[in-house]
């Protein structure tokens, strides 16, 4: 078995903070769709949380350039390396695209993007109900895709932790090498 280098502490903190925020966001989104009585309260959380996730995703992307992830185990098959690489790219695309599409959707709806109190984000698109409808569908599809990708990511993490035992999981949790 190969030893796997750990991710830097800041990278691990960003990863787990964003994991919590994104899962909360996905469940809040489901709650918004399923609830009539709590809709406005959930939206008031969903909007600023989306912007926090967008900012943190950009910080993560910059951090990833400064502190590249450790190399995957040398004995990992090429197809698994490709899947890991492609899935991480898609995760970053979705972490950035979803908040931007949400912001654009609310702009097209003519709704303010309230961060906190009187702090609002500017509209990034003109008011257009048809565009809003399209963006709402895109936002939903992207959220479902993100949820599916998170499940796959979680399954891969469990494979590395419980089956492969190659140190990949530990590199993002405890930081300890095997």
TrEMBL record:
It holds the Pfam family Ni_hydr_CYTB. Residues 7-175 form the Cytochrome b561 bacterial/Ni-hydrogenase domain. The chain crosses the membrane at residues 12-33, 39-62, 82-101, 113-135, 142-163. Its cofactor is heme b. InterPro entries: Cyt_b561_bac/Ni-Hgenase, Cytochrome_b561_oxidase, Di-haem_cyt_TM. It is a multi-pass membrane protein. Its main location: membrane. It is found in: Cell membrane. Keywords: Cell membrane, Electron transport, Heme, Iron, Membrane, Metal-binding, Transmembrane, Transmembrane helix, Transport. Belongs to the cytochrome b561 family. This is Cytochrome b. It comes from Dongia soli.
